[in-house]
Amino acid sequence: MLKHFFVALFFCFGIQLNAQDLGFTKPDYKAIEKEISDKNSKFFYPKLMERLVKNDTLLTHDEYRHLYLGYFFQPKYNAFWTSPNDEKLRTFYAKEKLETSDYDEIIKLANNSLNDFPFDLRQLNYLAYIYHLKGDETAAKIASFKFHSIMNVILSSGDGKKCETGFHVLMVDHEYILLNLFEIESKGQSLVENCDYLSFEKGVYNVDGIYFNIEKMLENEKKVLR
């Protein structure tokens, strides 16, 4: 079921991924850290996060870029993060068909996860799907807008063709969410310098694999493991 709702959401809400139109810009982490730490900047992190939590749909691509990539510098950032409700949510993922009585519990669990980590793309996507099933299209579009805005940040951070221009992600799970969204299956994963390289079956896609830049993840892992 999990794979199906990733595909379904891409078509349901009319919010298109448009990173190709935006082009890609390799993140300048020093500049991002400076901007999000400046109280006089429009990218001051606490203010941006407050707007995100309040479901502000006027947040721009640049603001989402500072939110997502700026999270690397937040004390709560943990490359090993998992949802506190992961086990409970997976029981719903595994169901062939959800009952209407499941919706409110899923919404509660997913929102609890997002309160802990606002870039939990898996739960954002699932939440949009559940709101859609419940008939709450306003809430579904807000969750979907967040999901697609974050995906656009990832897709506009590189082109994935080589390590130097790999897509930048907060966690490994986001790599696989991107592949799921475009119905791409990975056949292997390897570490190449500061990148995760996900390889594909030869001849199936236009490329043999995609690079994800995980330099900030690796820095965080070193801190966590000290």
TrEMBL record:
Name the UniProt record assigns to this protein: DUF4919 domain-containing protein
Signal peptide: 1-19
Domain of life: Bacteria
InterPro entries xrefs: DUF4919
Signal as UniProt keyword: yes
Keywords noted in UniProt: Signal
UniProt-listed Pfam families: DUF4919 (PF16266)
